[in-house]
Each structure stands twice: as structure tokens, then as C-alpha cells.
Design goal:
Elements: H1 3-17, H2 25-29, H3 33-46, H4 53-60, H5 74-84, H6 92-97, H7 108-115, H8 127-133, E1 136-143, E2 147-157, E3 163-173, E4 187-191, E5 194-199, H9 201-217
Antiparallel strand pairs: 1-2, 1-4, 2-3, 4-5
Helix pairs in contact: 3-4, 3-5
Length: 218
């Protein structure tokens, strides 16, 4: 997505999670079919509305709502919501049904690593783009002028097959109008090379936990 559009999405997401009334936020988010499908499925299982802050946090960061959305008929529920989407390419759902998904985790990072790579020839052929699109968490080392040094987790290939999480230092962009009062030691979520959200310690643990669960399912 263009950076300007990502900024709007992130601002809307933060507003919803923080309980603020962001005009047009839900309408804006409807333009992203994968996010829409995952959140609709989460809401259905949890007995909540799709714009409930718990649902949004579960999809983007992770929380206890994901524990209730494991196993059973989660895959079929997810596919049913994909079938109802009107803005997908012809044949998309039919191809999606062929993807092995023994374990479905209704988290953004599962959507990126399992479904988002359907048209790229597989996860190992699009690792850089996947790491950019994933929501990755880490601890801030240093805050500079428009840049932040962060120890981030990163998806990588194992030498003899499979995938793993590694921790690497990276420099990412910071918009102080979007994320203010950032200091060394803070936990952050990074999306497309920029700090998207400052996390609590608990949110940082949840994001890492559910990302590792996603990696186990690949």
C-alpha cells in the first residue's frame, strides 16, 4: 500500500483500539478484504462486533480472544466469510480452499504468511515482503530524528527446511505525530518499515507469542 494510505489505516486502527470515535474508520478498513474477513471470523467466534477493540487487538497484536478461535471449524468459518466477499478476483476462493491450513490462527501474521503469499510462489520466495507486511514487535534501543533503532523479531528460513524467528537490530521510521513520547526500552509494533504503535509490556509479549504460534503452523 502507498505510505500515505498506510498512515490513514494505522491512525484509524489506533483510534479504534484506544476507544476514540474516528469518523469513517470502519468504512476505511472495509477496503481491506483480508483484514475484514479475519476480523469478521474472530467476532463471530467471540460473540463480539467486528469493530470491538478486543477483536481489532486480537487480529493485529494478539490477545486471549485468539485462544478461543483455535481448532474446530475455524477454517470453514474463515472460508465462508471469504466466499461472501465481493471484491476478490474470480477463482480466488477456489484457490484458497486448496491451501493446507490444519491450524488457523486469526492473526494478521498468519494471513500474511499463509494466505498473502498464495500468488507469489510461496513464503520462501517472498521473505522480504512478508517481513515488511507482518506486524513485528521489538524493544526500542535509541530514538533519533525520524528514525528508531529497534531489536525486532524477523521471520527467516531454517537451514534444513522450515521457518524460525530471529532477533535483529533494525532502523525504522518514526512519525512523532502518529506515535509520540517514544523512549528507549519501550516496546513497539512495526509495520512496513515504520513504528505503527507503542505497545504495553503485555501487548509486546502477546505479539511475540502469537507470531511464534503462527511460525509453528507454517
Amino acid at each position: 500500500f502507498p505510505v500515505s494510505e498506510l498512515d490513514v489505516v494505522t491512525q484509524s486502527l489506533l483510534g479504534i483500539i484506544q476507544g476514540e470515535n474516528v469518523v469513517g474508520a470502519r468504512e476505511l478498513m472495509e477496503r481491506f478484504p483480508h483484514r475484514n474477513v479475519f476480523e469478521l471470523t474472530l467476532a463471530e467466534i467471540a460473540g463480539l462486533t467486528p469493530n470491538d477493540p478486543k477483536v481489532l487487538e486480537a487480529y493485529w497484536i494478539g490477545n486471549d480472544s485468539l485462544k478461543r478461535a483455535r481448532g474446530g471449524d475455524v477454517r470453514e468459518r474463515l472460508l465462508n466469510h471469504y466466499r461472501r466477499q465481493k471484491n476478490l478476483a474470480p477463482g480466488y476462493v477456489e484457490n484458497l480452499e486448496k491451501i493446507p491450513m490444519q491450524q488457523v490462527i486469526l492473526h494478521h501474521n498468519f494471513q500474511v504468511t499463509k494466505i498473502g503469499v498464495m500468488d507469489t510462489g510461496g513464503l520462501d520466495k517472498s521473505m522480504a515482503a512478508v517481513n515488511n507486511c507482518m506486524v513485528r514487535g521489538g524493544q526500542v534501543i535509541e530514538v533519533g530524528d525520524g528514525l528508531v533503532r529497534v531489536e525486532l523479531f524477523r521471520l527467516s528460513k531454517k537451514l534444513f527446511g522450515g521457518f524460525k524467528i530471529e532477533i535483529e537490530e533494525e532502523r525504522v521510521q518514526l512519525d512523532v505525530q502518529l506515535v509520540a513520547d517514544l523512549r528507549a526500552g519501550n516496546y513497539v509494533a512495526v509495520h512496513w518499515g515504520a513504528v505503527a504503535m507503542k505497545l504495553s509490556d503485555e501487548q509486546g509479549k502477546q505479539l511475540e507469542h502469537w507470531t511464534r504460534e503462527v511460525v509453528k503452523s507454517l
